[in-house]
Amino acid sequence: MLRMLLGQPPRAELGMMQGAADVMKRVRLQIEQREKKGNDPEHTYRKYEIWTQGLVVSLDELEQSVFASGFFADKVKQAYQSEMSKQEEADYHRHIYFYKNGFIRVFSILDKLGTLMNALFDLHTERAKAHFSFFTVLRQFRYLSVHMALMDKLNGIKEQYKEPLNSLRKMRNIEIHYMNMEMQDDLWQRDQTLNGKVKLEDIQQKQKDLELGYQMACETLQAAFEYIEVILRNKYHK
């Protein structure tokens, strides 16, 4: 959708989200087959199906946000906002919009996955923390000593992307809890200069962090749903 609005050709391939999208669709099909057998009086599996489809859609939306963020980041050439043309300044603000949208979606997807795993595996993470995150769910695996193979896999991915995730989390926290991140950056920059000329943040580095966060989300979803696929297959064939 965003590619069309930006005058770009449609996405030809799913790219790095292909593996995650494929396994999520297989799990959804498994759940649908379970529903058709009429063994879901409380609509538990129907809920899992809806959540899984929601993650498929959310991952697609994240990919589009990452693409749009990079599209506009590449149009920003000046190091100082005061030196930009009106068009370049507009492109800079469009980049910021989609960059924010992207990093918020990274953590949103992870938390949605955490909600699904918490319910599917009966972890009851809400007893430890009412408003829990994906990372709280990972700790709950260890606390309960259950599904340790999955926990190890997901923790390994988390550690692999630790630095970009920390950068994105910092930006997310500023955006949600304090003030707009670009204004926060402006304040710091003005404290460092005497002439009031504000240098932009490293846009390309932040875009790289966002792309790595997206890659982390893809790998995490793929690993989690490959595990869920096996668990459900074994459960259905008992």
Task: Please give a structural write-up.
It comes from Paenibacillus selenitireducens. Residues 51-229 form the Cthe-2314-like HEPN domain. Pfam families: HEPN_Cthe2314 (PF18730). This protein has helices at residues 2-5, 18-36, 44-73, 86-120, 134-144, 148-160, 162-178, 181-192, 203-236. The protein is 74% helix and 0% strand. The protein has one domain (2-236). The longest helix is centred in the middle third of the chain and has 35 residues, at 86-120. With 238 residues, it is mainly alpha-helical. It has 9 helices and no strands.
Summarize the structure.
The chain is mainly alpha-helical.
What's the Cα radius of gyration? 21 Å
Helix content: over 70%
| Uncertain residue ranges | none
Question: How many domain units?
Answer: 1
Give the biggest beta sheet: none
Please report the total strand number as a whole number.
0
Order of helices and strands: HHHHHHHHH
Estimated share of beta-strand residues: under 5%
**Alpha carbon gap, first and last residue:** 43 Å
What's the overall geometry? globular
The average pLDDT score comes to: 89
Structural classification: mainly alpha
Question: What's the helix count?
Answer: 9
